[in-house]
Amino acid sequence: MNPLFGDNALKLGLFCTNGTGASQTLVPEAHETAWSMSLRTAQAADRAGFEAVVPFARWKGYPENRPEHRSGRVLDPFTWAAGIAAVTERIGVFATSHAPTLHPIVAAKQAATVDHISGGRFALNVVGGWNRPELEMFGAPLREHDERYDHLAEWLQVIRKLWTETDEFDFHGRFFDVVGGVSQPKPVQSAVPIMNAGGSSRGMRFAAEHADLCFVIVHSDDENEIRDQIQGYKQMAREEFGREVRVWTHTVVVQRETQAEADAYFRRFSVEYEDAESVDAWMRLQGANTELMSPEVMQAMRQRFAAGAGGFPLVGTADTIADRLETLSRAGIEGALLTWVDYDTGIADFTRDVLPLLEKSGLRAPPGPVAQAGAVPERAVTG
Ligand SMILES: Cc1cc2nc3c(=O)[nH]c(=O)nc-3n(C[C@H](O)[C@H](O)[C@H](O)COP(=O)(O)O)c2cc1C
Question: At residue 129, does pLDDT exceed 60?
Fold first, then answer.
């Protein structure tokens, strides 16, 4: 079974290790994009029993006419996922894809292939896109906001037909024409899990209708307000689409011996060493092309955007971090993607100090051992 649907009440995942992380910072210790780092951190998370490793899809960085900027140095999610799948044993392995960048026949087959490599641990994050210049590179204008989700829905519909239909089919939609469509082999999983993180009301309705994992940006620190946000989402999915969805969020972690040290480091990398050029461009693009939040709220979130793409801050001692994760869980969050400036040290510290606290509070069970990394069981490729 895909670990995304395992027993732990609060699932955990790594996010953004296929690039320079989620922070937009100029601290010298920020890491560069490197396969070796992706590999090490995915294997560490696998050993620690995390459920997910999620790459992001980025075709061009944020500041204009800065082709060398670090925000654009991002490994391709599908080929990256294939590599990660081959050297891990039980963690859920994601790819992320913008619908306008990849034909659904190619996406369906690549996804099925990674599902085979991983032995049924694959999941797909589907996105409509907002970084206008990166999508314009593909020779087509970025669609109007809500239409992006109509296009994404049809793209996903074609992919799901390719994953499930055994006979050839014709599909004539608003955006795609497929004649004699077929894709073999089918994925290992009968249904490949779908993630979507649309934040607008159209995006949330898309996720509620089509995704298994929906993401929210948690704005409040108040448990009741967070609960309302999540229950509202779940209720909408239930009432409008008759579906039960799992709600996850993404976070940024700074773990230190004292709260003061953690606060100081959070400030150091996200304020003192903020990559202002990048954050300005990011906010301009998000402001123009998403319907996430008002310009005022966006401005107030600036530090969180610099720190980790707006992720919920988990800044403090191991106890504080565990407390905050417990609050999220009590409020209804079922999974948290974690990001750090320094993933290697971050995962090691978190695994040593925070995981035992989450186990003590019953949110997670201790993981069993993994066999030798890279030992993937033999599996026949059948239809
Ligand atoms: C956890 C998470 C992961 C995301 N991954 C990507 C990504 O890899 N590429 C991308 O262009 N957008 C990504 N997004 C952006 C969303 O797909 C979405 O476009 C954004 O939240 C704005 O919402 P809206 O499109 O509904 O206005 C991500 C957002 C979140 C919260």
Answer: yes
